[in-house]
Write a structure and sequence with these properties.
Number of strands: 16
Distance between the termini: 73 Å
Number of domains: 2
CATH class of the largest domain: Alpha Beta
Radius of gyration: 26 Å
Structural class: alpha/beta
Pfam families: AAA_assoc_C (PF09821), ABC_tran (PF00005)
Strand order of the largest sheet: 6-7-8-3-9-10
Number of helices: 18
Domain ABC transporter: 29-264
Shape: elongated
CATH topology of the largest domain: Rossmann fold
Strand content: 15-25%
Helix content: 40-55%
Largest sheet: 6 strands, mixed
Protein name: ATP-binding cassette domain-containing protein
Organism: Bifidobacterium crudilactis
CATH superfamily of the largest domain: P-loop containing nucleotide triphosphate hydrolases
GO molecular function: ATP binding; ATP hydrolysis activity
């Protein structure tokens, strides 16, 4: 059994009392067919998660990996019992949740410390809420503080600590509760590279030291290397709405060498899974033969697709880097060379794939002939080439251009485009898609946009 605070000083509602020997063999967490819908400000029903199932076993580290907007944090909060699912159920040790999960403690990306409390008082908060006596909670808090390497800072306030030290306080505050499962929501993303790496190793040591103070971990991340380094299993989520696209066991021996061929191969395979959806979407988009705004929105499958949020300038910068590798480059190496998180690269990669400038397969990216043509062109020619590619590969840009050409005065109100986009998207996404299409069209000198008058017009000096 796990270590507990002295029973004589612990309230009857603590986790230690609620977890019995009889149900210890059951999975810690079981989620079955979980979906989540939210009502937007304009009354629309937005599906964030759809039909997710997941099991967290005793002694296991599971990473939930996905792009921004995949609903990772929402799913974690549902598993923690902080947000109820719209459909499906979550069980802790076989018992359905009807409120906060009694076997879980959470560590947040933003540290979530009380600035007016000392380190020791912050760590004691959870125990105090559970009715643990002052002497026992002080003893437990000091032990947790020492275990995470903060001995000597008990009386310090959060403002006196670095980011890494603040996150150590957050971890100690979670560990002092002796949870069955530690939930971590992007816990290292706000830290510098070296501090984040050090904390990952500290958490892994606490998990593997055999003391029983840290049993199972569920970590949300968009960092693929972090997922491979820490997890026994990586659950990959697709987006819009969030859904499971892969459940990948990580069988590499510990400690894991990030430079080993097997580690790099595993990273590449996860990159391939995350980019595979974008490749399929691109192929379908290129098959569309649309001629005009109304026809585009009459096709429901086309109307649901979205343009990646990437600028032509950012895409040009990425192509310039990839062009330095004649045979292409692994996405993990590219992200490392640019010191970017993978989430920062995905919109640019998706844009390059959509426009036929990048070939992204199995975690590897290279320039296509179109991409090399655009990359090698001078400034004026690059605009002409981009316009040609956008007209060929992007139905929304093509439809706006054709609508303007069919208009008697060569103009159309932006609200018209946004309203039509709202037929297939939320208001926020419709506005975003309009903004991206305008930016791409302007760069290619296909059309211009006057935000004061909300008017799109053909670029008379352009194509």
């Amino acid at each position: 059994m796990k270590n507990t605070v002295n029973e004589n000083t612990v309230n009857e509602n603590t986790v230690e009392k609620s977890t019995t020997v009889g149900n210890a063999a059951l999975p810690v967490i079981t989620a079955t067919h979980v979906s989540k819908n939210f009502l937007t400000d304009n009354g629309e029903d937005l599906t964030v998660l759809k039909d997710l199932s997941l099991t967290l076993h005793e002694g296991e580290i599971v990473a939930i990996l996905g792009r921004s907007g995949a609903g990772k944090s929402t799913f974690l909060r549902i598993l923690a019992g902080l947000v109820p699912p719209s459909e499906g159920k979550v069980e802790y040790r076989g018992t359905p949740l009807s409120g906060p999960n009694p076997g879980v403690a959470m560590v947040f990306q933003t540290f979530a410390l009380m600035p007016w409390l000392t380190v020791e008082s912050n760590v004691e908060l959870g125990l105090q809420a559970r009715g643990v006596g002052r002497k026992a909670r002080k003893e437990a808090a000091l032990q947790a503080i020492d275990s995470i390497g903060l001995d000597g800072f008990e009386s310090a306030y959060p403002k006196e600590l670095s980011g890494g030290m603040r996150q150590r306080v957050g971890i100690a505050r979670a560990l002092v509760l002796k949870p069955d499962a530690l939930f971590m929501d992007e816990p290292f993303s706000a830290l510098d590279v070296l501090t984040a790496e050090n904390l990952r190793q500290e958490v892994l040591k606490l998990w593997s030291d055999g003391s029983g103070s840290l049993r199972s971990i569920l970590i949300v991340t968009h960092n693929i290397e972090e997922a491979v380094q820490m997890a026994d299993r990586v659950v990959v989520l697709g987006s819009h709405p969030g859904h499971v696209i892969a459940d990948v066991p990580i069988t590499l021996p510990r400690p894991r060498d990030k430079h080993a061929a097997a580690f790099e191969s595993t990273v590449d395979s996860l990159y391939a899974i995350l980019t595979g959806k974008a490749d399929a979407s691109q192929g379908e988009q290129q098959k569309q033969a649309l001629s005009g705004l109304q026809q585009m929105f009459a096709d429901s499958s086309q109307g649901n697709r979205t343009l990646p949020d990437a600028t032509p300038g950012g895409l040009a910068g990425l192509l310039e880097i990839v062009a330095e590798y004649p045979d292409g480059v692994d996405l993990a190496d590219l992200a490392s060379a640019l010191t970017f998180e993978v989430d920062d690269l995905f919109p640019l990669l998706d844009a390059g794939a959509l426009l036929g400038m990048l070939d992204v397969k199995e975690g590897h990216v290279r320039l296509t002939s179109l991409g090399r043509e655009w990359n090698d062109a001078d400034i004026l020619d690059s605009k002409t080439i981009f316009a040609r590619i956008a007209m060929s590969h992007v139905p929304l840009v093509r439809s706006i251009d054709r609508t303007l050409r069919q208009s008697k005065n060569g103009k159309v109100r932006g609200d018209l485009i946004v309203d039509l986009l709202r037929g297939k998207h939320t208001d926020e996404v419709a506005q975003q898609q309009f903004r991206i299409a305008v930016e791409w069209g302007r760069y290619g000198e296909l059309f211009d946009y006057d935000s004061d008058d909300d008017t799109l017009s053909l670029d008379e000096g352009g194509q």
